[in-house]
Amino acid sequence: MGVPVPATLRPPPSDPVPVPPARRPESVRRTSTLLMSWPEGLAGDLHLYGDARDLLTPLEGEAAVLRAARLHAITDRLRQILSIEAEPAAADVQRLVGCRAGSNLRTAIAEQLPEEVEAGTPLHLLLDDLAGSTLISGFATALWADEFPEIRSRMAGAHTQKIMRDICSGFRDGSSALTPEGTIRGISMNTPEPGPLADPADALSWHREPPRPPMAMRRARRIDVWAEDGELHLNAMFRDSCWDPQGRENVVHEYELLGRADAVGTLRAMTAVPKVLPYAECPLAAPNASWLEGSALRAMRSEVLQRLRSTDCCTHLNDGLRSLAEVPVLAAALDF
């Protein structure tokens, strides 16, 4: 069982990381973004633009890009992939056209692009993020309801009949987020404004991103890996954010992840720090991240889903933890 519900809940966390950490000498940093937008308008298809990069910062000399990838996918209102393009080109990526960007998409990726999965490439991370990103993308439109009346009418029936009870920590039975019937009471507006993803003092701290249209949502990740005292250390960040009509960025979900692993890639310590979450019950899943200690990092994508389920999980925490499976891939570039 997960953490018991305290008698008095605190308000949901509203403290995004203000400044990204400086790059460490002898470290590898993976950054990725997946930008969601509707170039043809709300009645059109969803476009997803992904960028990812692995950067080695040596003890001496210039930083070097180890790997990089770009992705452009288009999905329809049912989240079916209509088209997909990737750099570096991967011929088998076209086999994903026609797949629905839901939980089964990850199975299709493993079947059609096993080399990308095995190598833990930046492209695999972007492909893996299609499922979660298409699911959350609609939140961006909620901030524009006063600008587009069709958004408000669409929202009115979105969750009124859908029972959400016990699918995650935030929607546990009796949650403040749910009605007695188990449907969502309303959209959380706990959406603080964040600091920048990139370090203003370091032009190499983040990869270059495409121009952003006014109405858009973005999933961003950073994973820093370095060796210290005979162990691998990691500092990771996971953030979903979107922009309102005034151009203000709003964070919807954010976690900080801190961990250590031994020389063979076994996770020895893991701490999840909720920074921004929508509901008071959401952070109750965070202590359960320690349940993964003793797992092989390369197995994290499956271990997370097996160990953190139902009210013991937060879907966004799970998404952050799963990407740590590639920590050993990043560490291979270090003298460790």
Write a concise synopsis of the structure shown.
By secondary structure, this protein is an alpha+beta fold.
Describe the structure.
The chain is α+β, with helices and mostly antiparallel strands. It has one domain. The protein has helices at residues 103-112, 114-119, 122-136, 139-142, 149-156, 300-307, 315-322, 327-331, and strands at 27-37, 46-57, 64-75, 81-87, 216-228, 231-243, 249-261, 267-276. An eight-stranded antiparallel sheet has the order 4-3-2-1-5-6-7-8. Helix 1 packs antiparallel against helix 3 (122-136). The longest helix has 15 residues, at 122-136. It is globular and about 55 Å long. The protein starts with 26 loop residues before the first strand and ends in a 5-residue tail after the last helix.
Give the biggest sheet.
8 strands, antiparallel
Average pLDDT: 93
Large-scale geometry? globular
Q: Give me the secondary-structure category.
A: alpha+beta
The largest beta-sheet arranges its strands as: 4-3-2-1-5-6-7-8
Features:
eight-stranded antiparallel beta sheet, single chain, 336 residues, alpha+beta
Topology, element by element:
Layout: E1 27-37, E2 46-57, E3 64-75, E4 81-87, H1 103-112, H2 114-119, H3 122-136, H4 139-142, H5 149-156, E5 216-228, E6 231-243, E7 249-261, E8 267-276, H6 300-307, H7 315-322, H8 327-331
Antiparallel strand pairs: 1-2, 1-5, 2-3, 3-4, 5-6, 6-7, 7-8
